[in-house]
């Protein structure tokens, strides 16, 4: 009897010791992780932002990045009545608006992408975007007449850039600029700069799918970034690319859209027609060193059509692309082919057009 009690006490002590050991291990592990990896998720630039940073200056770096993002949003959002971009729009056809270097630089680059993409990317698309209200709570289908009339206002060549007065203007009244197609790219580059200033050498910057993979993963392996399945919006991917120090930006028909009469109306508008782009491409991903290039180009090539887009991207040094078409074909440009792995067998990799 006494032996039995002794045995039970002994067993009890062992179990308690084991529990303490496990608990200590878990607490230490979490502590260790929280010392090295910081993840901050919040809403900004009209999307969900997720910053993941490794390094001892992480906390400070993230705080500075958040501040920088707020400044960019306040200058560029068309949803803020007195942002610099809103002021340019209010003064359209009247006078130029003096702006800060952020806005000046961004709009200059936006015009460059308009030229490169033969006007498929056009930051003066705003009046048409406002007609459709895609992505808002009450999207609508504009009439043909409305579109025809409004389309006359869309022309990036009417953006007046004055280097001397550091101002941006628009030629005609009611014209308006929307930098929604490129601002997240600029913002990602700025966050990257903040992180680099803080000597961070491993981070993942995700501005609503506009991604910059800084350095490598903390374990020194490449970052694996999934290319979203455009037919499955639950975060499924068709394959992964393995990269370091690269921006990965995707424009897709699945991000913001509404359906009417069984047809999908998405948020990337063809400036030639005023309607959502109908090219065979339904997802275009740009892989580049600078995210502003990725964002500016992904919207344009989405509209341009496959053949022209592949040619354009192949002609740009250090920039690559992955395209997915309506019939589940996947194309990749020469610089990214070997770092890209399709895992979903529904999709067929095409080596050439
Ligand atoms: P997302 O913001 O979903 O990542 P994009 O970067 O491709 O997608 O930008 C789409 C946004 O750009 C739209 O919400 C709209 O504000 C604007 N836009 C739509 N069509 C064009 C276009 N042809 N040129 C420039 N901007 C566009
Ligand atoms: Mg874009």
Features of the shown structure:
binds magnesium ion; alpha+beta; three-stranded antiparallel beta sheet; 25% strand; 353 residues; globular
Task: Give a structural overview.
- The chain is an alpha+beta fold and 353 residues long.
- The protein has a single domain, classed as T-fold (Roll), CATH 3.10.520.
- It contains 9 helices and 17 strands.
- The strands form 4 sheets. The protein has a 9-stranded mixed sheet.
- α2 (58-76) packs antiparallel against α7 (183-197).
- The radius of gyration is 25 Å and the shape is globular.
- The relative contact order is 0.12.
- Magnesium ion (MG) is lined by residues 181-182, 251, 295, 298-299.
- Residues 120-123, 125, 129, 135, 178, 180-181, 251, 255-256, 267-269, 271, 295, 298-299, 303 line the site of adenosine-5'-diphosphate.
Shape: globular
Number of DSSP-assigned strands: 17
Order of helices and strands: HEEHHEHHHEEHEEEEEEEEHHEEEE
The CATH homologous superfamily is termed ApbE-like domains
Which CATH architecture?
Answer: Roll
Sheet having the most strands: 9 strands, mixed
Q: What low-confidence regions span 5 or more consecutive residues with pLDDT below 50? A: 27-34
- Supply the number of structural domains: 1
- CATH C-level class is Alpha Beta
Strand order of the largest sheet: 1-2-6-7-10-13-14-15-17
* Strand content bin: 25-35%
- SS content category: alpha+beta
- For the residues shown, what is the average pLDDT? 91
**What is the straight-line distance between the termini?**
84 Å
**How is the CATH topology named?**
T-fold
